[in-house]
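User: Predict structure, ligand arginine.
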Amino acid sequence: MSGSNDGSNGGPAANTMWGGRFKGGASDIMAAINVSIHFDQRMYAQDIAGSKAHVAMLAKQGIVSDADAAEITRGLEQVRQEIAAGSFEFKDALEDIHMNVEARLSEIIGAPAGRLHTGRSRNDQVATDFRLWLRDEIDTVLTALKDLEAALIDQAEAGADMVMPGFTHLQNAQPITFGHHLLAYVEMIARDRGRFEDCRKRLNESPLGAAALAGTPYPVDRDMTAKALGFDRPMANSLDAVSARDFALEFLGAASINAMHLSRLADEIVLWMSAQFRFIRLTDAFTTGSSIMPQKRNPDAAELVRAKIGRIAGSFTSLLMMMKGLPLTYSKDMQEDKEPVFLAVDSLMLAIAAMSGMARDMQPNREGMLAAAKLGFTTATDLADWLVQNQGMPFREAHHVSGSLVSEAEARGCGLEDLPLDVMQSVHAGIDASVYDVLKVENSAASRTSFGGAAPDNVRAAVKAARARLGTA
Ligand code: ARG
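Assistant: Predicted complex:
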């Protein structure tokens, strides 16, 4: 940074967009803290779409002439093409995307360009751009999440009868099926989609025409611009229109919850890949090697998905803190609303894509999961249930008998199913050989037929329901 910071450095001339009452240029530091073009250029397409809708309305209302409106529209389209082609020169001195576009428009069409900003302010303009941009991104996120669900549903179908241990406290609890476990995530992601859809509904109102904050004396038709931009309606209060950012926060809230779900699944993938679990294998496509340990296959993609919540929830906190305590209406603080949202969108999209990739790449190890399901006396509850159902024992007492048999098996270093019948009978005389059926982990999982339970038939039905919900059945 060069130059003085006292504003009298005779640096750049006063801004041509708003510099009517300014004699000198901004100090270099003022310019550096004020500039946003390096990030808000990302909304150029939305900015130009908003301007086209605005000028069409101005012409229809007789606020500008049809001839000027036609020139402005033609010029805006040329600007759009230049930016899309990468030939547009963004200028820091013009601060932001709005003024960069308008200045170039003025170069292209001359005087009529000055009529575009009638009955409008950058305050309603930026709010409009940001809503339009985020609406598009939400649609992309929703499509990506559906793809992830589809991938998980396919794996769930293949794993409908693969028995694995279900956990509580990360301790083996009861036998479940791999398909059932994956479908739990399908439920979470479907709810996440619902949150994004809700957010989209609420954000889809147009701030355009609120102008700086109070509305405008021009006979603008806010319904017309709202409709042209695909909004459901104009926002009802001009002050709210230019200063609300809860739509972005709602998105970041939904994104944080979604990232938390992805993080949990990612963590399970990391665990499942380990030699201690051996539940799944990922191919070279989603793993990396170690520069020193030749045997390593590291689940880096899963680890990075697990980590993304940091940036995403951080973005939520960042925007929430930035908005807190701001008086109505617009304050320049709010220029800092975009970067956290951009960062969160990019991080989330990458995380979802990586997770979909891993979900498809995942090769479940049926034998490994089955062997693990047999560890830790996972059918002790089945044994207690057998005593209730076959011996008429109260569940509390059955729990106690089953517990005694677990400690007997533990002492012998064997599984419950390996305990000889006479040992069982010494704990409870009524036990007969039919008990061994319920001690098999496959039978245990298959018995979980209550609605929402882990049984293979339930999984197959749930797969169908999940596909129907996705619209891919
Ligand atoms: N670049 C600004 C932003 O992103 C645009 C709005 C500027 N409004 C103003 N009154 N200075 O917030």
